Predict the structure of protein-histidine N-methyltransferase.
Amino acid sequence: MAASNSECNSKDNTQKPNFETFQLFSSSVGSGFGIFDDVSQQVSAIPPPPCVEVLASDSEVASCNKLNVESVDFDGVTLFKGRVNTQQVFGLSNSDLVPGKYEGGLKLWEGSLDLIKALRSDIKSELISFGGKRVLEVGCGHGLPGIYALLEGASVVHFQDFNAEVLRCLTIPNINANISSRSQLSPSISTNDEAEVRYFAGDWGEVDKLLPHVSKDAKHVEGSGYDFILMAETVYSINSLQTLYNLIKKCLIHPHGVVYMAAKKYYFGVGGGTRRFLSVVEKDGVMTSNLVAEITDGSSNVREVWKLTFK
């Protein structure tokens, strides 16, 4: 989940958010250099937090500090991104990832912006439409891709993150900031005011049990699942790739569901990346993948956006 100090490049002159240098672990957990740490041993030693649904009306949401926001422009569509202090939420001052405790959800990673641009391009080309569709954003953090789907008329948007704290202190306030300002930001886009928006925290191996549109049976029930699964920077750890893929297969509506995945080609030091994840997909033989975009802007590792569908 590497990030750079440079800004995202684009053809326009709009200001883009800065990305901070990635540090894998805090000094209290590991060496700070992922290549020297035994990631699998650390992950197995720390149990994941419980899976819970976080309610937007939760008193802990209201108790979070006021969100400082800045705007991000995507070819005429403007979204807000909030900024939350990692130290205040998790007590971590210099870390982007602590296995079993914090998975980087308070950062805005480059892949989220790449994903929105790819979605916008496919909508313009009339390849997809979110109107009336069910959407799940996995590893949501700021939730910008899910917010964009909501603004494009999705009837259901569910946001999932590893940490309930991320949902309470960042995702929900960020969504509220975007929805309340949508008329001024993007007057050409109309939100479905009756959309079902819900928030779920927990590990990918268990969180499907909470998701209301996912069949609890071993086999897919016709019509169950999500039309779209959106995920950015979720394939950084080799240890979680199979679990993530299993979640996708459980949650994606069959046979017409679509997954959009934005990530770096390789995550040095933690073993993951788009190609390692796609090898898991190919080995299973159930889904097919297509490259949507490749970003080589010189500011970070090569980034990609892929589309996955059932064969």
